[in-house]
Amino acid sequence: MLIATASSLPPHLKMPDTSRIGGTMPFENDAAVLAVLDVAWQLPSDVLMSCEIGVRNCAGEVYRRALVKGVAQMLYLEDRLSQMGFVPELEDSEHNGSGFDVIFRRSVRK
Question: What residue segments make up the domains of the chain, in order of their start?
C-alpha cells in the first residue's frame, strides 16, 4: 500500500508550505489566513521568486510562516490579506534579520 506524501502529490493538490510558530497565539481568524494561502498556492508559481512571509497575531507576534513562489501568488496574497485588514511591513526595519521577506500585520485603525 502506497501512502501519498506532500512531495509525491501533484502541484495542484499540495497544501501551502506553512506552519504555526510554536509558543504563539494564532490570529483570531487563522482559518481565513489559511484559506487565502491555499488559493494563493494554486496560482502559477515560478522559480525566480520565492518569498518567506510571516503573519502577526493581534499581540504583534509572528505566529505563522509561509512560503509563496511567484509574483502571482504574492500579489494575490497581498491583495487578499489587505482586504482582511493586514498591511505588509516592507520598509520597517523591525523584522530585519528575522528571515522573512515580508511580514503582514493588522493595520492600526484610527
Answer: 15-106
